[in-house]
Amino acid sequence: MTDKNKQDPRLPDETFEPYEEPRRIPMPVYWIAIALAIWGVVMLVQMSYSTKIGDKERASMSDQEVAATTPVKAEPKPDAGKALFADNCASCHGDAGEGVADAIPPLHASDVVKAGGASAITHIVMRGIGGPLIVDKANYDGEMPSFASVLDDKDIASIANFVASDLNGLKSTVTPAQVAEIRTASADLNPWDGGSGLAGLINGLPAQPASETAPAPSPDAAATAALAMHGTNEIWSCASCHGDKGEGTQTIPRLAGLAPAYLAKQLHDFKEGTRINDSMDYVVKSLSDKQIIELANYYGAMSSPSGARPSLEGDLARGEKIALEGDWTKNVPACFTCHGPSGIGVGDKFPGLAAQQPAYIAHQLAMWQGGSRHNSPLGLMAGIGKSLSDADRRAVADYLASLPPAAANAKLALAVSATTKETSNGQ
Amino acid sequence: MANKHPSDIPPPGPDNAERGQTALRAIYAISGGLALVVLGSLVVDFGWAPSWLTGQKSAPVAQVKGEKTDLFTPPDERTIPNDDFGASVRRGMAIFNQTGTNAHEFVGNDLSCSNCHLDAGRQAYSAPMWAAYPVYPKYRGKNKMVNTMEDRIHGCFTYSMNAQGSPSGGPPPYGSDVYRDLQAYFFWMSKGLPIGVQPEGAGFGKIDKPAKDPSRERGAEVFAANCAVCHGDDGMGQTDANGKQIFPPLWGPHSFNWGAGMHKVSSAAAFIQHNMPLSQPGKLSVQDAWDVAAFIDSKPRPKDPRQTDGISLQEADKKWHKSSADFYGETVDGVVLGTGYPKDAGASQSN
């Protein structure tokens, strides 16, 4: 500012620098600074507010959990069997054990129960039963899952005694110790083979239909099992993530017992990019359409115990309500309206949910909500995902994890010769 | 242009100053932009932004909520008392949800009350029972007499549950416990509502007349795209591995008969528009709802039980089906609709 000023003022300054001129800080800079300061304060206040809300939510949830669990644990009431029946049996067999006409045999005043007593009930609860069965002169042909992996000896004894005495007026009872013996004897045994399978168990069993012959294993069964268990040189095996029994873990889903058409559809979706998961995207690339069908049949036919336990600290009572009744104030129908009673799955579009890994369910619901999974028919799950809060997702996931796994349904197996179009075009 | 006088060339000084100005302007512009972004994010964060800007459907949700708060909320089933009255309410609820099991003798198809009266008869605009109970007894044009609630349920069994095909061959006899328990359930559900006032949410709600006459051809496309996932390509519904009916059949021998309210295209259209696909009410346009209702109505189903021996299809059509535009008595795809099925016929029978 010194020498240059001595220049002829009429001539342009040859060494002008913009910062040389003494200037006030322009107003917009003040505004920006003030705006940023306000924004910062607002964000601070808001953060602390949402933290408070979160704290409150957690506190109220743990209160609810305490309220939901304590009465059961504190006092094993004499009607514990009734409560356990309502929680574990009623969703299929009805609140009063009346069954469902042409689908689920009654447990109330049932000739099979009357002949077998509490011990036979224990055997059936422990192993499950599937195939033709005659109860009270009516024919049934369904699949009841094994409850061994979700109920302890005491609970099974309570349920068996409730069914024998309260629903059938029998005097026969079982003790938890007897249930434990039956559990040991039943380990690794398949479900009872329909009514004919019970013949050796129950004296005076009413006449039963012959059992269905098991479908012959596919000629490629051994190769498919090897693929699932050991993979190939290029790809790792299914079992390395989904477990030897297809039971899944964490956010890796249970596959055992899911409808083959559903499994095949998901694999095709991974292949086509309509469902996205880095590991699966890589694996499916090397699978042929035939291998996809065979693997889907392999896992669809697999019966294995539940590998899931409630682990997300969800509110089980709330989860049960969503699964059984839905929350219509949010346009959320009951899960079981479409996924079947107790989440056993319906057809090939509504997969079984029972015993699915809770972290997987909660994660998938969040993905439906966010739109990163979007391959459900009619976008049904997107709408439902958007309606469920984080607490609801954990609640329903934990409830589903508490259920016994659905029995495998051999009738749903896909024909290996089926063209791939049929499976991939299905929603 | 080519030969510029040296004085025309801008002196370097002002140019420099201008460059400084440009830098300043750039700083202002960037900061101004930043400030706008900050303000914008604040606005969005607080939910003040209009929904067309954010793409979120905050406004419609709020509307739906506001609408729902005006509706009556029936009591939670956990509040059913644990006494003899409560036992009757529970039996009524069991009949309502599993009609074929708990009123087995009187049901001639694979439906339950709760297939159309959704959420165990609690859902507004799917003919909730809490909206019906307070307005009975009432006069009904359908049978031209004052109907008690028992008369009304008698009609449900006769038509919607197709009692003519049931083990007993008819609806529960008057005075049956089936009526007693169902009414106890409805009564319990309606607690607090005024008598004689039809509450909002009653029936299937209103639906506008369609712009074009309902078309079963367009309806077939709507059905394939929106309904077949659950009800099946053949409309027969779906069962689970145990054989329990999960999705109800919409036509055929195991569905409601030609006398049921749901066979009227207008009723079905209103129900569909307000309730279907499940969890996505309002997804189908008014026109789509009418079209798909017409498509469903153009399929065979059990005969109208009022058309007994000695009454021809034409007479029955004139007497009971002229006031409503339906497909009764018409020939669709070579099949005369309304003739029903021989008693206990299987699904293989045509119409």
TrEMBL record, chain A:
Could you tell me which residue ranges the Cytochrome c domain spans?
76-167, 219-303, 314-404
Keywords recorded for this protein, A-Z: Electron transport, Heme, Iron, Membrane, Metal-binding, Respiratory chain, Transmembrane, Transmembrane helix, Transport
Transmembrane feature ranges: 29-49
Q: Which PROSITE patterns match?
A: CYTC
Q: Name one GO molecular function term.
A: iron ion binding
Q: Which portions of the sequence form the region Disordered?
A: 58-78
What cofactors does the UniProt entry give for this protein? Answer: heme c
Full protein name: Cytochrome c domain-containing protein
TrEMBL record, chain B:
Q: Which PROSITE patterns match?
A: CYTC (PS51007)
Indicate, by first and last residue, each region the UniProt record lists as having compositional bias (Basic and acidic residues): 298-307
**Which stretches are transmembrane?**
26-48
Q: List UniProt keywords, sorted A-Z.
A: Heme, Iron, Membrane, Metal-binding, Transmembrane, Transmembrane helix
Q: Which superkingdom is the protein from?
A: Bacteria
| Pfam families linked | Cytochrom_C, SoxA-TsdA_cyt-c
InterPro entries hit by this protein: Cyt_c-like_dom, Cyt_c-like_dom_sf, Cytochrome_c-type_DH
Q: Which residues form the Cytochrome c domain?
A: 87-190, 214-300
Region ranges (Disordered): 298-321
Q: Name one GO molecular function term.
A: electron transfer activity
Instruction: State the protein's name.
Output: Cytochrome c domain-containing protein
